[in-house]
Amino acid sequence: xxxxxxxxxxxxxxxxxxxxxxxxxxxxxxxxxxxxxxxxxxxxxxxxxxxxxxxxxxxxxxx
Amino acid sequence: xxxxxxxxxxxxxxxxxxxxxxxxxxxxxxxxxxxxxxxxxxxxxxxxxxxxxxxxxxxxxxxxxxxxxxxxxxxxxxxxxxxxxxxxxxxxxxxxxxxxxxxxxxxxxxxxxxxxxxxxxxxxxxxxxxxxxxxxxxxxxxxxxxxxxxxxxxxxxxxxxxxxxxxxxxxxxxxxxxxxxxxxxxxxxxxxxxxxxxxxxxxxxxxxxxxxxxxxxxxxxxxxxxxxxxxxxxxxxxxxxxxxxxxxxxxxxxxxxxxxxxxxxxxxxxxxxxxxxxxxxxxxxxxxxxxxxxxxx
Lengths: 63, 297
Hints:
Chain A: InterPro entries: YpzH. The structure holds two protein chains of two kinds. By secondary structure, chain A is of the alpha+beta class. In chain A, 24% of the residues lie in helices and 35% in strands. Chain A has one domain. Chain A is globular. Chain B is an alpha+beta fold. In chain B, helix 1 runs parallel beside helix 5.
């Protein structure tokens, strides 16, 4: 099966760090500015698109 | 020199001339460069020769000579393969690809045009030999207009209403009118999209059109043509900046989101209107009548 889309990374400011699961890189940030900066950099580096799931959770998806 | 020299010359010139006239390079068509054109002019010449020679062969009672028309058919099918392969290869490096449906449509047109050349040469030579050069000229002119009429399909403005709508964001979701396009997370990307993006709503004029414009190949063709004509605000490392078309499932309208470099509204509407309706995307649900078929059996 060909994977059409995959989530490459998650970036979050959510501080409830105990709820960690799954096998993808998770980037924790302290502020929303930091979150946006990390997401922008990751988007540029891995050629994915930064999607916002909520105001403190972004994912990078390779389309 | 014999009695067939002039009719044959006439047929070949008319056929090759017709192929030349059909070989326009406009803003969306391949081929754009000299070598591609030479290939097609040469093939047009061969097609014209084949069509022309069939007539004297029959008149000389050399009926087997007609079998080379079968050879011609397989030869020109090869043209279609050639075009398809070339364009598919090139498509990978387009910022906004043509899509397979569009490519197939162009390839089919290339094959079909050679057959038109054969028919034109055949009929005009026949007219020359059966009557005289004036009859042949009239036949050639009639065939030229006929081929022009037959080979020009409809364009999008015939089947849809095109309205401009400014794209907007609801949270991270990008919308054109009420049609959801995609999720853009980063605020700076959102700003770029609002600055450069344009949205259009294509409203189908009737029920048949709904399935035609829903075709993914047709949608890709729209995006490609618009990007070629108006430029595209995009680069290889920016997958978020992608022109997209999504569909409103309720009423079959489609929302076109584009990122042109030239934000000329009139030109954009004209360009979308001039996108050809792809032969392979046309659906006619109203022409199929399953209930009537059932009664016949």
